[in-house]
Amino acid sequence: MKPFSAQIQSLNPETDHEKISFLLSGHVFPWDLERSLEFALFRTFAVPSISGLLAETGEFVQRPRKRYDDTELILFEILEHGMNSLRGKRAIRRMNSMHGRFDISNDDFLYVLSTFIFEPIRWTERYAYRPMSEVEKQGIFKNYLELGRRMNLKNVPQTLQEFEEYNIRYERENFRFAPSNRIIADKTVDLMLGFYVPKWLFGLGRPFVFALLDDPLRESLGIRKVSAVRKWIAKKGLFIHAFFHKISREPQQPVLGTKRKRPSYPEGYQIEELGTFPSGTGSTSG
């Protein structure tokens, strides 16, 4: 059987975007793409209208692991089962129901969607064993374009270049410091570090996470400059990971986010219990 990377090159992003996205996430770049989406979340925290809403709900402050798991599980349900599958439709319905209970602007929705496209592309260019091919970039783009349509988003840029221009312009106009930015970012950094090190090492680990943030993002989160030595160490660690990834075989069985044990749901989960809902509204089955 051909390597999954080679299989992708024979696919058409217009019609096979879901398969391309699944192969990238499950076989080609499972670790890299998950890390890139974590840093995509960081970018959304630099926008006061987004971080303010997250702080207001209290979920990221009080239950950051559940909020993280809910976000991942909804996205993985859609990615791993397909948007037209029963589970995929239930996950999209659940996501739209959750978002519909909050006052979120179309521009903020578009920006968050854009980070899910461009942060994986940029991460692989900087830190993975190879950058994405044009087929892979277009596959991810077309996949999220279709998800945006099912989220009923308006004025979605229809080409990769136009959407990247939107992403860059939005950040230039909306990145600015607010206390809620730093509150949400700190909770998320501690959550990420908890995947790898005990709590008593969080203070040592935070600067190495911050070392991967660009200056506009770092300043909008209220984070001090990180030393060049720490930046070098952080990036060297990722380069070492990329080297071992390059000489390893792609996993033959897909790495599935929906099958991973999660402390938020030790007995398993139902799609209809995922997500953040305002107090007193309850949740609805889909």
UniProtKB/TrEMBL annotation:
Residues 55-231 form the ER-bound oxygenase mpaB/mpaB'/Rubber oxygenase catalytic domain. Residues 275-286 have a biased composition (Low complexity). Residues 255-286 are annotated as: Disordered. InterPro entries: MPAB, MPAB/Lcp_cat_dom. Coiled coil: none annotated. It comes from the Bacteria. This is DUF2236 domain-containing protein. It comes from Algoriphagus aestuariicola.
